């Protein structure tokens, strides 16, 4: 899931700050009812349905809701050089 937060013009290009969110290992405590801590070992969230459906928030591997998976936010800057792009048609 990509999200471009903001764009900043620089002399010959555009500097873009991008944020990619991934959901990794499942943190659901399956032994909470007996006062212990045990996870199922699911290492990555895989949606069980199409985007926009109820299944998109359910993991196909462990059958848990996406909120039980550890959310990791990756942020980075990219630079697009616009000096080679001509604004007049040839």
UniProtKB/TrEMBL annotation:
What the entry lists under Pfam families is as follows: ZF-HD_dimer
Please list the GO terms describing molecular function: DNA-binding transcription factor activity; transcription cis-regulatory region binding; zinc ion binding
Give the GO cellular component terms, alphabetically. nucleus
Where the record annotates domain ZF-HD dimerization-type, the positions are 23-72
InterPro entries reported for this sequence:
ZF_HD_homeobox_Cys/His_dimer
Keyword tags: Metal-binding, Zinc, Zinc-finger
Instruction: Tell me the Gene Ontology biological-process terms attached to this UniProt entry.
Output: regulation of developmental process
Q: Which PANTHER family match?
A: HOMEOBOX DOMAIN-CONTAINING PROTEIN, ZINC-FINGER HOMEODOMAIN PROTEIN 2
Q: What is this protein called?
A: ZF-HD dimerization-type domain-containing protein
What is the organism of origin for this protein? Olea europaea subsp. europaea
């Amino acid at each position: 899931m990509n999200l471009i937060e903001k764009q900043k013009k620089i002399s010959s290009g555009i500097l873009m700050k991008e944020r990619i969110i991934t959901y990794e290992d499942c943190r659901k405590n399956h032994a909470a009812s007996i006062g212990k801590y045990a996870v199922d070992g699911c290492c990555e969230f895989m949606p069980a349905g199409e985007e926009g459906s109820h299944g998109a928030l359910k993991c196909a591997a462990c059958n848990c809701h996406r909120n039980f998976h550890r959310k990791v936010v990756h942020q980075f800057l990219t630079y697009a050089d616009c000096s080679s792009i001509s604004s007049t048609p040839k």
